[in-house]
Amino acid sequence: MDSDITVNDVIDVVSIYEVRKTSGSVSISTPLSLSRLISPTLKLKAAKIEPSDRKRKKAASSLSADRLDTNKDKRQGHTKSKKTKMSSSNQVRASHILIKHQGSRRKASWKDPDGLVISNTTRDAAVTQLKSLREDIVSGKSTFDQVATRVSDCSSAKRGGDLGPFGRGQMQKPFEEATFSLKVGEISEIVDTDSGVHIILRTG
After folding, report:
1. How far apart are CA 183 and CA 202, in angstroms?
2. Which of 24, 73, 161, 182 could tie 148 with a disulfide, CB 3.0–4.6 Å?
3. Cα gap 73→81, rounded to integer Å
4. How many CA atoms lie within 13 A of 24 on its CB side?
5. What is the pLDDT of residue 194?
6. Which listed residue (96, 152, 156, 188) is catalytic?
7. pTM of the model as a whole
8. Which residues lie across from 187 on neighbouring strands?
């Protein structure tokens, strides 16, 4: 019978007053407590509803948190991408051919470990040689990496003169300025540094 009780039954019952016998007379006391009138079964039903409500609230809260986390990840990804682009714009990539001469700060190379040839090469002679090599490359007689591999005094010769990517402050100032002033695919004129004389090909 408890299982068939309705909300209307509860409302009707609340209005009933408890009747007691006291010393042979009838007295009307306070209204019956709602908790005494509602059956254990109905209380159980109410108890079962509450966890469901809590679960729905918890699920909604979790969904909201997930959305916040997703938005946070997007913002972080955007910031990271922006930083990467900024970093890339401050870097270049280049290959070069170096001819050392008697004025170079280090008069030795992989081709001339003892520096015998370098020590007897004037700057003018090095510049003349490099200009001739540049003409061969520009005219298409030779490729830049072929010439670099054969004659460059830099250890990058084994990579066709490739220095990889670099930013400002990583190379000698004249070399850096010349490289950053080039467009990708352009070859510089003669560039003087403490290492010797160079021609530079910007590749990135």
Report:
1. 7
2. 161
3. 12
4. 0
5. 98
6. 96
7. 0.59
8. 201
Q: Which residue has the higher pLDDT, 2 or 120?
A: 120
Answer yes or no: 198 catalytic: yes
Q: pLDDT band at 72, cuts 50/70/90?
A: low
Question: Is 101 assigned a catalytic role?
Answer: no
Sign for the CA dihedral angle at 93, 99, 100, 102 comes to: negative
Cα dihedral sign for 145, 146, 147, 153? positive
- Residue where the block lists tokens 């540094």: 193
Task: Identify the active-site residue in 95, 156, 188, 198.
Answer: 198
Selecting among 95, 152, 154, 188, the annotated active-site residue is 154
Distances (CA, A) of 111 to 32, 86, 182, 201: 110, 39, 29, 22
Query: What tens digit of pLDDT does each residue of 100-143 get?
Result: 999 999 999 999 999 999 999 999 999 999 999 999 999 999 99
Please list, in sequence order, all residues whose beta carbon lies within 8 angstroms of the beta carbon of residue 156, skipping any fewer than 6 positions away. Answer: 95, 96, 148, 162, 163
Distance CA 115, CA 188 (A): 26
Determine how β-strand 191-193 pairs with β-strand 196-202. Answer: antiparallel
Spatial separation of the C-alpha atoms in residues 20 and 144, rounded to whole Å: 114
Q: Catalytic annotation on 64? A: no
The count of residues in the chain is 204
